[in-house]
């Protein structure tokens, strides 16, 4: 029997894990969204790079999911319980995580933040950066019925023709972020409003199933375009039985007002944590 505390969870059991996190609502919303999106990809014949492990093979202990990319080492850490002791022990003793690498832990709720603070000395890492986000969700079966596309405006998927514009306006862009946006656009995970065939507003859906980079070109702001696009895209997701999730930085008051106005509910904040070896 293996001494490795993180036990691999086959894709056939991802639905069971999703159900565990659904019971930890709303804290478990990010974990649910990741699992739901990746399961949909697999059902459509697409590939998933996600590798999921559970501490000691027990889903109640949480999940550690590896989403390795060329530019960073992303590890999704989630726990459906306030008791994170077994997850902490597993993270301290696992041989699967290379803590000498720079590690990105996305959308960590407070119980995971507490856990990271607990284990940092044991795994010899320190916090490089943290980015807190407000979380807004739309969890309903009711579609928006008041959506009117303005005259001269069309709603359609993004194309790579506008890749440079999308990447250059993202405040968190990095050397290969254009490749990431290209990946999402090619998956048909990008949507835009076009005025006379000119892109004026857009949003994308991440591989974790969350909204990304809702943006309106400056000269077209304060005309309601972002609200129209948000509702159109949300309707597409809701028709598919999905929860709509949006993260925004705490001082982005305009985005927060838009989500509230559109019926989203603010739930537990999450944090992106970047760790580095001491």
TrEMBL record:
PANTHER family: GLYCINE N-ACYLTRANSFERASE-LIKE PROTEIN. The gene is LOC111348065. SUPFAM superfamilies: Acyl-CoA N-acyltransferases (Nat) (SSF55729). It comes from Spodoptera litura (Asian cotton leafworm). InterPro entries: Acyl-CoA_N-acyltransferase, Acyl_CoA_acyltransferase, GCN5-like_dom, GNAT_dom. It holds the Pfam family FR47. This is Uncharacterized protein LOC111348065. GO terms for molecular function: acyltransferase activity, transferring groups other than amino-acyl groups. Residues 153-278 form the N-acetyltransferase domain.
């Amino acid at each position: 029997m293996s001494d490795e505390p993180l036990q691999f969870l086959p894709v056939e059991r991802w639905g069971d894990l999703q159900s565990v996190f659904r019971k930890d609502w709303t804290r478990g919303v990010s974990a649910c969204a990741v699992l739901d999106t990746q399961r949909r990809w697999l059902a459509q014949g697409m590939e998933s790079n996600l590798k999921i492990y559970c501490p000691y093979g027990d889903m109640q202990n949480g999940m550690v999911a590896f989403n390795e990319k060329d530019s960073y080492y992303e590890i999704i850490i989630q726990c459906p319980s306030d008791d994170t002791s077994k997850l902490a022990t597993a993270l301290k003793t696992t041989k699967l995580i290379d803590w000498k690498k720079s590690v990105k832990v996305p959308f960590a709720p407070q119980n995971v933040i507490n856990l990271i603070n607990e284990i940092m000395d044991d795994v010899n890492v320190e916090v490089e950066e943290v980015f807190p986000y407000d979380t807004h969700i739309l969890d309903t079966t009711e579609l928006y019925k008041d959506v009117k596309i303005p005259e001269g405006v069309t709603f359609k998927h993004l194309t790579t023709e506008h890749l440079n514009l999308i990447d250059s306006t993202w405040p968190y862009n990095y050397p290969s972020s254009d490749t990431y946006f290209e990946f999402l656009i090619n998956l048909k995970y990008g949507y835009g409003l076009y005025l006379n065939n000119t892109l004026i507003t857009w949003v994308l859906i991440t591989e974790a199933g969350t909204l990304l980079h809702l943006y309106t070109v400056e000269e077209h702001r304060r005309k309601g375009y972002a609200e129209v696009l948000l509702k159109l895209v949300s309707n597409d997701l809701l028709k598919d039985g999905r929860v709509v999730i949006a993260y925004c930085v705490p001082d982005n008051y305009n985005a927060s007002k838009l989500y509230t106005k559109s019926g989203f509910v603010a739930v537990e904040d999450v944090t992106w944590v970047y760790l580095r070896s001491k």
